[in-house]
């Protein structure tokens, strides 16, 4: 980290790569007087070089196993089209929540009914993603019942 003083304003330059929105920035400059962050964009060659050693982990959750399987298939197809390597989809253990409800509103406590809610999970790893891969994943339309979490 380097500090630069320019006139009455004090600037801090951070020497690591920042991910802002969908674009990468080589240097983030924070001006202490204004509190604004100024981003300097990099070229496509620099972006590919910084993303070369990265791995994106996508975790899918859904109540319906058919919907989650079709979503995982869509993600794998789009990633392989862009040229990145894919590991998965790996089926994770299904979470099962069982709820016990008394059938009668007044008596007959021994008569109960069980309801269960199953949460299916899948894990997909994208190895060495390109900017084109990230772009195509952001544009991908998936069904409403699928919960997605992405980690870099």
TrEMBL record:
PROSITE patterns: RIBOSOMAL_S10 (PS00361)
Quaternary state and interactors: Part of the 30S ribosomal subunit.
SMART domains: Ribosomal_S10
Pfam families xrefs: Ribosomal_S10
Higher taxonomy: Bacteria, Bacillati, Actinomycetota, Actinomycetes, Streptosporangiales
Ribonucleoprotein recorded as keyword: yes
GO biological process terms on file: translation
GO cellular component: ribonucleoprotein complex; ribosome
Family that this chain belongs to: Belongs to the universal ribosomal protein uS10 family.
Described purpose of this protein according to its UniProt entry: Involved in the binding of tRNA to the ribosomes.
Small ribosomal subunit protein uS10 domain sequence ranges: 57-151
Keyword flag Glycosyltransferase: no
Keywords per UniProt: Ribonucleoprotein, Ribosomal protein
Matches recorded under SUPFAM superfamilies: Ribosomal protein S10
Gene Ontology MF annotations: structural constituent of ribosome; tRNA binding
UniProt-recorded name of the protein: Small ribosomal subunit protein uS10
């Amino acid at each position: 980290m380097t500090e630069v003083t320019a006139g009455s304003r004090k600037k801090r330059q951070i020497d690591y790569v920042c991910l802002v929105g969908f674009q990468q920035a080589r240097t983030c400059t924070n001006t202490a007087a204004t509190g604004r962050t100024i981003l300097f964009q990099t070229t496509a060659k620099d972006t590919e070089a910084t993303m070369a050693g990265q791995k994106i982990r996508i975790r899918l959750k859904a109540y319906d196993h058919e919907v989650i399987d079709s979503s995982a298939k869509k993600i794998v197809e789009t990633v392989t089209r862009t040229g990145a390597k894919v590991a998965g989809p790996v089926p994770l253990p299904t979470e099962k929540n069982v709820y016990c409800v008394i059938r009668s509103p007044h008596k007959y406590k021994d008569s109960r009914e069980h309801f269960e809610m199953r949460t299916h999970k899948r894990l997909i790893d994208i190895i060495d993603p390109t900017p084109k891969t990230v772009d195509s994943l952001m544009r991908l339309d998936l069904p409403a019942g699928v919960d997605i979490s992405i980690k870099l």
